[in-house]
Amino acid sequence: MRSHARPWWQRALLTREMLTVAILVVAWVVASATVRGFDGPLTITYLVLDIAPVLLVALPMTLIVATGEIDLSVASVVGLSSVTFGLLYQAGLGLWAALAASVLLGAVCGAVNGALVAYAGLPSLAVTIGSLALYRGLAVGLLGTTAVTGFPDSWTDGATANLSESPWPVVTLGLLALAAVFAVLLHATPFGRNVLDIGRSSEAARFSGVDVRRTLLILFVLSGAVSALAGVYYTLRYGSARGDNATGLELQVVAAVLLGGVSIFGGRGALHGVVAGVLLIGVLGSALRLEGVTVNVINIVIGTALVVSVVAPRIAGGVRVRRRASTSPRDGSAVAQRS
Questions:
Q1: Contact at 8 Å (CB) between 163 and 172?
Q2: How many structural domains compose the chain?
Q3: Which of 48, 211, 307, 329 has its CA 20 to 30 A from that of 97?
Q4: Cβ atoms of 12 and 273 closer than 8 Å
Q5: Does residue 4 lie within any of the structural domains?
Q6: DSSP states along 182-195
Q7: Phi and psi of 148, rounded to 5°?
Q8: What does the buried/exposed string (b/e) look like for 138-158 if buried means 16 or more CB atoms within 10 Å of the residue's CB?
C-alpha cells in the first residue's frame, strides 16, 4: 500500500532496476569516451557474444533467486552439457539429436537439484555447491584434458554470425525471444506471482494454495535445461567441447541478477533489471579487457559489485527504518496531541 501511494512515474522510474539501467548508460558513455576502440561496431558484436551464455543462465536464475533460493551449479551444468554435446557428436549422433540430448541431461541435473531442495527440504546453497562439484567432476572425468573439435562450419559460424550487415549477432534474436518468454512468465502469469509469493513467505504461499514444492522443482528444471542450452552455444561459439568450459560463470550470473535488483532474500525482482545487470557486467568486462586488464582483476571488480549489490539494499533499508522511527510521533506526544 505504501508503494502504490506514490505517483505511477515514481513507481516506474525510482526503482533499483532503473538505477541499474542508469548506471549502465553512464558506464557506456564513460567507456566510449575514455577507452580506445570501445565505441566501434565490433564492441556490440563481441559484447553480445560474450554475454549470451550469462544472460541465458540469468533468466531462470532470476526466478530461483526471487523465491529466496539459489542455484550455484549452473556453470558446471554448462560444462557437462558441452562435454555431452561433443562426445555424442564424436560418436556419430546428429547435431540436433546431440543438442536435444544435452538439454535433456541439463533438465535431469536441474531435477536432481530441485528434488533435493523442494522435496527433501535441503538448503539450496548446500545442494548446489555439492552438485557443482559433482557435475564438473563428471564433465572433466568424461573428457579428461582433451577437447572435442571439428564441428561443422555451418554451426560454428552460425553461432557468431551477424544479422546482415549490422553489428548485431544472430544469437540476439534468440536472447530477445527467451527474455520475453521469461518476462511474461514472471510478470504476467499466475506462476510468476506464485514465485514472488514464495519469496515473500513460503508458508503464506502454501496456505494460500501455492504448490511450493512443485514450483521450485519446475524452476530448477528450467535452470538446468537453459544452462545446458548455454553449454551448447558455448561449445559452438568457441568450436571446442571441454570439461572446464564456463568455469566461474556462476559468479557473473549471480552478480548480474543481484545488480539487476533481485533481492537475495526473495520476493522481489524484475527481468529488465537483470538484463541491464548482465549488460553492465559485459560493458565493464569489455572496457577493462580493451585497457589490458587481466581476467583476475576483472573477477575482483565483478566480485566487488556482487558484495555491494547485496550490502547496499540492507544499508538503505536500515536507513529508511531509522528515518521512519525518528519522524513518527512517540506515544506520549501522540496522546498529548489527541488530548
A1: yes
A2: 1
A3: 48
A4: no
A5: no
A6: HHHHHHSSHHHHHH
A7: -100, 125
A8: bbbeebeeebbeebeeeebee
- The amino acid present at 321, given as its one-letter code, is V
Smallest Cα–Cα separation from 28: which of 200, 276, 240, 252?
Answer: 276
| Number of neighbouring beta carbons within 10 Å of residue 124 | 23
Structural domain of 35: 14-326
Q: Cell 566461474 identifies what position?
A: 248
Confirm whether 196 is domain-assigned.
yes
Under a CB-based contact definition with an 8 Å cutoff, are residues 81 and 228 in contact?
A: yes
Residues 17, 277: Cα–Cα separation, whole Å: 9
Q: How far apart are the first and last CA of the chain?
A: 29
Please give the Cα distance from 108 to 73 (Å, whole number). Answer: 13
**65-92 pLDDT, tens digit each:** 999 999 999 999 999 999 999 999 999 9
Residue type, 326: S
Please list, in sequence order, all residues whose beta carbon lies within 8 angstroms of the beta carbon of residue 102, skipping any fewer than 6 positions away: 81, 82, 84, 85, 88, 228, 231, 232
Which triple of cell numbers denotes residue 198? 514464495
Say what the pTM is: 0.87
CA distances from 281 to 33, 44, 63, 284 (A): 18, 14, 20, 5
Quick check: 307 and 87 in contact, CB under 8 A? Answer: no
> What is the domain-level CATH number for residue 184?
1.10.3470
Cα Rg for the chain, rounded, in angstroms? Answer: 22
Q: Over the stretch 121-153, which tens digit does the pLDDT of each residue have? A: 999 999 999 999 999 999 999 988 889 998 999
Residue 153 lies in a domain: yes
The beta-strand segments (E) located in 40-162 are none
Kindly state whether residue 338 falls inside one of the protein's structural domains: no
Give me 212's grid cell: 511450493
